[in-house]
Sequence to fold (468 residues):
Amino acid sequence: MHHLIWRNKTDGLFWHSSVMEHIDHLRRMGLFDARVPRYTSYPPATAFCPQTEETFQVSCLKSLDPATPVSVYIHIPFCERLCWFCACRTQGTTTLKPVANYLRVVKEELALLRATLPAGVRMGQMHWGGGTPTILPPDMIRDLAQAIQDVIPPAPDFSFSVEIDPTLVDDDKIAVLADVGMTRASIGIQDFAVDVQQAIGREQSFATTLACVDSLRAAGITSLNADLVYGLPHQTPAKLANTIAKVHALDPDRIALFGYAHVPTFSKRQKLIPDDALPGEEQRYHLAQQAAVAFTSSGYQAIGIDHFGKPGDNLTIAANSGHLRRNFQGYTDDTCPTLVGIGASSISQFAQGYVQNAAATAAYVERVEAGKLPGHRGYQMTAKDRLRAAAINMLMCDFEIDLQKLDAHADARDLLPIHNAILEEFAGYVTATGQGLRITPAGRPLTRIVAQRYDSFGDIAAQYSQAS
Ligand code: SF4
Fold:
């Protein structure tokens, strides 16, 4: 994602000849070649270590303070269609039989959690992702929500978001989701151009999406997020402009604009997308810029590296008050320090570190049915890891490092050699401040690359997507 012109939308810099020069500079900084984590966690999940014993997960869960609400994430690893561009961990199904079996095992995992968690732990936020949570029929939606709330009851001001596939939802499902407490819906769109949709194996009309949005609003869901993707096959500025106009007609409160990461070596379905249909690196850059200009010109505020929010949206408020954070869903206003992941491949985040449940559904089921909590990989944080994690989060959210704000970490000054190296390497794009450093608006496309300089796990970079 790119920010060169976000603060210059009135002076036409997007079309200024210096843009090409700027792109050349960014290329020299490695923007188009670097393979960089998205830093939804630090260390990235690729650095987690195998663990076969439950000890670490159990001790993290037992140590939770019931006075502090937790966030809960539940993964539904099923889709009716398997879109070719998508690298999510999910499996296709045309029947509800495997889904019902999975929910049975999730309830067993919840029983294991109930036996482990201290009494009185409550949930401040919950997110259902996948896969396709809306593959669940109304009775399963109600049953799952009830099962979770029985084990971890909602705290006051509880919020609950669900990823919605507009082609696999109806009024009945939305009514039940609203009834069990859904407060925000995240709607998958990607792009409305028919040939782009066909090239990524995901067809979804504007009429279907609009009907979904209308139904959500009629059910009282007032916070809507739209997910878009740039860099898709056959995407052009004209088609993107058309998609943006349609997104404006839907009037979402937030927009997430992700760059398509083409990594067919790791995501086999992406082999169905021919390389030569993809926009080149400069086209990708301009598509991202075009979308950013369109959204910021129409009243959205740019948030972090890839989000936009209306002025009154909670994410915008969090960004403006210094409370924006990264978690596995991307940017969040979630203030809960602990995330409890439930279901196959879900990741839990504790003060002590991370625990990821067995990723393959069969392995997850086998572990839970053996009576074990399903965490099978993880990472125990050291004080140095915490410092680096805080620095990377600050950079990804605020585009600056303020050592004073890192004072909770006694060794924050240890970062100074990294700061100095960054200031030299990214001269002109990163500037020194009294308390640390700041990425300039022109340097924001490089944010993930700058963040990687704080990452001591950089040798696994080939597994990540390109930085632009
Ligand atoms: S984009 Fe959504 S519906 Fe398509 S495969 Fe990915 S998770 Fe499933």
Summary: The chain has 14 helices and 22 strands. Confidence is low (pLDDT under 50) at residues 1-17.
